[in-house]
UniProtKB/TrEMBL annotation:
GO terms for molecular function: oxidoreductase activity. InterPro entries: ARM-like, ARM-type_fold, PBS_lyase_HEAT. This is HEAT repeat domain-containing protein. Gene3D superfamilies: Leucine-rich Repeat Variant. SMART domains: EZ_HEAT. SUPFAM superfamilies: ARM repeat. Pfam families: HEAT_2 (PF13646). It comes from the Bacteria.
Length: 321
């Protein structure tokens, strides 16, 4: 194939951006898969227009062919940019590149992703995408650098630490336990700027499934008393999946929480753990408020009994009355 001729036919080098993208999308009607991959890879290596590059990356990502890795890495590392090109215009292109690279699941990309992640002068969006990409590729070589990011209290972007925590959860390496737990053990508070970081940390710990680690259980249990309702909800979900014997009682204490959504999530978690008996208890016992009783009946109606069941009608009538 004459790749340069195809590029010129698409007006890649001088055409209107929208027209070029339209021509690129029409290539599907002319060429087979392998040829398309070769064309897209060539376009990635010669195109300098950010919008067109994003369109080509989307096309490449459909096929997820390993041959696209090299041109994608060149864009991520800005090897395609001359000194006189405004590199700020390529931020979103590089973010999309990092995502496409992660989708290739090629561990040879880890070094380049780590390079961008560890560069504190790099745009935070690019670093964020690289952290996420490292988690999705799943190479354990990335664990230690991601831990360093999570632990770095001088890191300017809390969002980056959040992404690193999520990536560690995806990687599932026990080396991440201590640094993740240490974050949960810091001062609690709804106004704490690390609230969202703690949410990601709890999610990550939940994925690690360490039912024998008492320190993890204590940190998750303590998070049930955090001032942030969302942190409490995340802790409920993590405990539900954890396998800790004490998790049931810890979650059950949240049925008395002052936030309705926390109460509901606690009831759902308990139902997932032990089944219908917790619903019957909530409906039967006067100590539980209407919010929980309504939620219990809703779960019964959806999962346990038919809509025309006499018990469901009676309970619903009492609560609506």
């Amino acid at each position: 194939m004459d790749l340069e001729a195809i590029a010129k036919k698409c007006n890649l080098f001088e055409g209107d951006t929208e027209d070029v993208i339209r021509e690129i999308n029409c290539l599907d009607e002319i060429y087979e898969r392998d040829n398309l991959v070769e064309i897209y890879n060539y376009f990635l290596s010669v195109c300098k227009d950010p919008e067109i590059l994003m369109a080509v990356i989307r096309c490449c990502d459909r096929f997820r062919d390993k041959s696209s890795l090299s041109p994608l890495l060149d864009i991520l590392l800005l090897k395609i940019c001359d000194d006189d090109i405004n590199k700020e215009k390529f931020i979103n292109v590089r973010v999309m590149c990092a995502k496409a690279i992660a989708n290739l699941k090629d561990t040879s990309a880890v070094t380049s992703l780590l390079y961008c992640l560890n560069n504190k002068d790099e745009n935070y969006k690019v670093r964020f995408a690289c952290a996420d990409g490292l988690g999705r590729i799943g190479d354990k070589y990335a664990v230690a650098p991601l831990i360093d990011v999570v632990k770095d209290e001088e890191e300017r972007s809390v969002y980056l630490r959040e992404s690193a925590a999520s990536a560690l959860g995806m990687l599932g390496d026990i080396r991440a336990v201590d640094p993740l737990v240490s974050i949960l053990e810091t001062k609690q508070g709804i106004l704490d700027k690390f609230t969202f970081l703690k949410e990601r940390v709890i999610e990550a710990l939940g994925k690690l499934r360490l039912e024998k680690n008492q320190r993890v259980f204590n940190a998750l249990k303590s998070s049930l008393m955090d001032e942030s309702p969302q942190i409490r909800i995340n802790a409920i979900e993590a405990l539900m999946e954890s396998g800790y014997e004490e998790a049931y009682d810890a979650i059950k204490s949240c049925l008395a929480d002052n936030d309705d959504e926390v109460k509901k999530n606690a009831l759902i978690a308990l139902y997932n753990m032990v089944g219908r008996k917790i619903l019957d208890e909530v409906i039967r016992e006067a100590s539980y408020g209407d919010i929980l009783k309504v939620e219990a009946v809703s779960i019964l109606e959806e999962y346990e009994i038919d809509e025309d069941d006499e018990m469901a009608r009676r309970i619903r009538k009492e609560l609506d009355g």
